[in-house]
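ok so I'm stuck.
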Amino acid sequence: MASQDVQPFHWHYTELDDKRFEVHGHTLQLIVILFAILLLFTFLCLYARWVCRYRQLAAARTRVNQNPLPERRSESSGLDPATIESLPVQLHRSSAEEVQCSICLSNFIEEEKVKMLPNCNHAFHPLCVDKWLSTQSSCPLCRGSLAESVV
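replied:
not stuck anymore, here's the structure
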């Protein structure tokens, strides 16, 4: 019974009416104009984004150029050469354990000159510690300040 009620579907290409899908002159112009406006808007957005990034980078560069070093750099500046030369130099005496310069990590040999730092009494090769103290005002081993003790 159910099979008798079903009508077979016949597809005919001639029955299709595609005249509703035609694009005529004014409609085609409108589509092209809308596409051009969309494209122009996209390029303007991309250009604005590029300009904003360029300005941020330029502003960051000028900030870096105006203040290249942080202010705390002056606090940790080294000692003056006269102060470095005034530090005591002694001859190394060998002991039971090997002692080394903590800057260059080489062992001290018998009767070698070593520079002793005040307060902490740490010993270093004079050339090693002189280079360090020209840029830093603290002991390279314990970081104890030498600026107050030497002056």
